[in-house]
Amino acid sequence: MINAALFICWSLAVVIFDCGLRRIPNWLVIAGLACACALAASGYSPFHTDLADAGLGLAAGFFALIPFYVLGVMGAADVKVFAVLGAWCGVRALPWLWIAASLAAGVYALWLIASSMTTHNRNTSPQGSQAPLRFVTFVIGGRRTTPYAAMLALAAIGSFAINAFGVAR
What we know:
By secondary structure, the protein is mainly alpha-helical. The protein has one domain. The chain is built from 6 helices and 2 strands, in the order H-H-H-H-H-E-E-H.
């Protein structure tokens, strides 16, 4: 039970930091990795991963997303969190986490677009011309991004809940 609580608390901390501060501190990433590896080594992983699967998941998570960081379309924290989620959940869970998080990020982006459009904001200049009817902003916490690490962590919590309650079996 404590193993599941550690995972859920760590994942929720990732969500809070990513959504609230738009940063995920390295100490949180390292703490998550240490817990994941210690639980895997002791046989008490909430995802029933062993140390070899945790290591493989860590490497697979890192190498799967590092190209997106290199291209500048993803933050380093997103890559690190996905790697640590690989250590927690194992390599087999990573494709499903990635798909679920990407779908959630897409829904979030659509919601953000819809909620940030203004249609009745007409500013008239002294010459009588009008400003554009609408504008869209993706600025959250001063940055133009989607909290993808939070989406990954929420997908992992969902995966844990599905496995814990036997829905996927």
